[in-house]
Amino acid sequence: MAGKRQRNRNRDRDYDEQIIRWITTVFLIYMFVFYPLFMGNKYFHITNTKYLLFKVGVIVYSIILILAVLLGYLNRLTYQSGVIRAGDKPENGSKRSFLMAQDICMILFFISGFMAWLMAEDKNSAFTGADGRRCGLQFMIISFIMYTCLSYGYKINCFIMPVFSIVSIVTYIIAILQHLEFNPFKLLDGVSLAQRDLFVSTFGNINTFASFVCISMAFSAGMFIFEKNKAVQLIYGTAVFVSGGALIAANSDSVYAGCIMVMVVMLFAAIAGDRMMQYAGMLFLIINGYVAMSLTLRLSNRGVSKISGFSKVSEHIGLMLIIDFIAAVIFMIFVLKKRQKKTAGKAFSIKKQMIIAAAALIAVIVIVIAVGIRQRWNIFVFDDSWGTNRGYIWKRLITLYHDFPIKNKLFGNGNESVKALMISNYYDEMMEITGVVYDNAHNEYLQYLVTLGIFGVLSYAALIITTVLVCIKYGRYQPVLYACVTVVLAYCAQAAFNLNQSITTPYVFLFIGLTAGVVRMVKMQRETSRQ
Question: Which of 522, 512, 530 has its CA nearest to residue 475?
Fold first, then answer.
């Protein structure tokens, strides 16, 4: 009888876990499918539209999840009170790690947002984020709730991951067609000719779309390398290939920072997981997608005049074909090496391979910087016009932060307060030099420094670092963690030149929360298996 009661309790507990798992899966479908594609009134009020979708989705998800958890807990208590006899040990349900380092850092980051709100002169604007990109205290509350729900514990449903890559392909194709001067779904109707080049895909501003490309490319690349099902791997590979063309369509230099981070992070992950052939295939697909887009632009002579910044390298077709050939040779070398692996064995240990890779990356960085400084490339000449006037806004905000009183240095000037600061201190100069009113630093870390203070920056950095460390530790049990950490780091790389906003920034907190949930589930399963 005792064994039967235990089996019944385990069955009920597993049933509760499945319900919670499917609630989270439905929310992920919402964020991976509906959220990126829905636009409302095309590009008009797209920031408010996406933010409303995010806010409503998280609130509904959290309410349903909390009710499911409470009902499951109450059902177990009711069951136990009716069947437990003297000498029986009560069943407490699944053991979950109560607090992880990520959780602490997320709590601290949320506290930094609340402290910044206390520092703000206009508390209503600091709460709603109306003077910026809707990343006020309200946004931080919603993101914290989403993180908490996702981090409760989640076992990945196998079909949910490729769905995100399929939707990403759709957004890439829309952007590519728009860059080629087509107007799919008449999305650009009503947008003035002078501003049409600034809006793309289903995300609005090109910088916002560039942020999404970094996120989705990183995810598809990571999943392609570690996916063992060939049919599913084909989906990821297609997304990686099309993302190569989307790099040009995004037409934003920040997207290249994210792309480089993807290549670097996945290099070390592939070495650790003995997936170098898949890594070479990933590089080959990205480069071929980029070359295909370059050739399309040249042959069709459409959208060539739009290209700016780093994307201008696509105009050098000869160079593109040489890079493509080198990538093909590298890929074939790894294919042949894979076939000879059993007889040849490993030439280098994983540690030696990582040292060689790190040394090669450092050498490339040093050479590029040395040549750039010598040739006085624009990227190495930091003045007010650097990075489409990023130099101007960065210098002024650093000066303002330096002059803050100590309490504002610690906790910032208030959520989304950059616009108010720039207008009150530099309005005439700003309009004369740049011609626009800046409401964001166009550097997420400088933005947090000014608005949330050093406490906000350090807690955010700690959140990223703890996420990376936990993914490295548990990635061997759930390779999806490698893809998730690549998303986080790719986002962080592009964030150094881009702006946080309420359209794609939710994804970085989504994937951070997802890593915490997957890790918590892995821990719980390992503890159960040891019992």
Answer: 522
Q: Rounded to an integer, what distance in angstroms lies between the CA atom of residue 531 and that of residue 301?
A: 66
End-to-end CA distance of the chain: 21
% of the chain residues with pLDDT over 90: 66
Taking residues 325-344, what's their average pLDDT? 69
Q: What is the pLDDT of residues 67-105, one digit of tens each?
A: 998 887 776 666 555 544 444 444 444 555 578 999 999
pLDDT at 361: 74
- Each domain of the chain, given as residue ranges in start order, spans 1-94, 95-152+166-530
CB burial of residue 129 (10 Å; 0-12, 13-18, 19+): buried
- Evaluate whether 423 touches 429 at the Cβ level (below 8 Å): no
Q: In sequence order, which ranges of 251-349 are alpha helices (DSSP H)?
A: 254-272, 276-300, 317-339, 341-344
| 0.85 surpassed by pTM | yes
> Cα angle vertex 397, ends 492, 388, to 5°?
65
360: number of Cβ within 10 Å:
11
Residue written as token pair 């080959």: 284
Q: For 403-408, which contacts have Cβ atoms below 8 Å and span 24 or more sequence positions?
A: 407/119, 408/119, 408/453
DSSP-assigned letter for residue 476: T
Give the model confidence (pLDDT) of 279-313 as tens digits.
989 999 999 999 999 999 989 999 888 888 888 88
Question: Any idea which residue has 């769905």 for tokens?
Answer: 163
CA 437: distance to chain centroid?
A: 27
Cβ atoms of 182 and 175 closer than 8 Å: no
Q: How many CB atoms lie within 10 A of CB 356?
A: 12
Give the span between the Cα atoms of 95 and 153, in whole angstroms: 11
Burial class (CB in 10 A: 0-12, 13-18, 19+), 230: exposed
Q: How far apart are CA 270 and CA 338, in angstroms?
A: 14
> Tokens 């203070």 sit at which residue?
453
Distance CA 179, CA 246 (A): 9
> What does the block give as tokens for 108?
């601290």
Tell me the pLDDT of the chain averaged across its residues.
88
Rounded to the nearest angstrom, the gap between the alpha carbon of residue 463 and the centroid of all alpha carbons in its chain is: 14
Instruction: Burial-class residue 106 by CB neighbours within 10 Å (0-12, 13-18, 19+).
Output: buried
Count of CB atoms situated within 10 Å of the CB of 473: 12
What residues are paired with 200 via a beta bridge?
A: 204
Relative orientation angle of helices 46-83 and 2-29, to the nearest 10 degrees: 170
What Å distances lie between residue 307 and 158, 248, 250, 303, CA to CA?
38, 7, 10, 7
In the block, residue with structure tokens 């130099």: 391
Q: What pairing do the DSSP bridges indicate for beta strands 199-200 and 204-205?
A: antiparallel
Q: How far apart are CA 174 and CA 199, in angstroms?
A: 11
Separation between Cα atoms, residue 391 and residue 187, nearest integer Å: 33
pLDDT band at 271 (very low <50, low <70, confident <90, very high): confident
Q: 357: part of which helix (H) or strand (E)?
A: helix 350-375
Residues 489 and 37 sit within 8 Å (Cβ to Cβ):
no
